[in-house]
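cron nightly-structures :: item 1 of 1
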Amino acid sequence: SYCVELVSSFKTDWAEPWLLGLAGFHVLCFLLTCFSFQHYRVQIGHFLMLFYLLLLYGISLLYFSCFRLFSKYQYFDSRGMFISLVFSAPLLVNTIIIVVNWVYRTLNVMTELKTLQQRIKAEKDKKK
């Protein structure tokens, strides 16, 4: 499989500053995802930022040509597998969590609305 070849073809030095910074960035994004559940507008802004970053996935091709400026190893393969795993996958997980939260909240609001409609209808029927 391509993934096995990719992993065995290079070493990953997880102590490199840019990888540590990327890990810290992902931790901050996840914490913001978790803490923004009660603040809808913050969550919308966060979601749009994550979506924008996912669109910047093509940046790996830029790094592919100048990786020696910040890294000891060539992590940026032409297929983009490494950048997909360490950059895009965590962002995608955050966006999925946000979308699931939105669907859950929407279902709750719809349930509350239907319950309220039935209560109002029952009160009208009771008056008649």
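cron nightly-structures :: done
The helical segments are 2-9, 17-35, 40-55, 59-65, 81-127.
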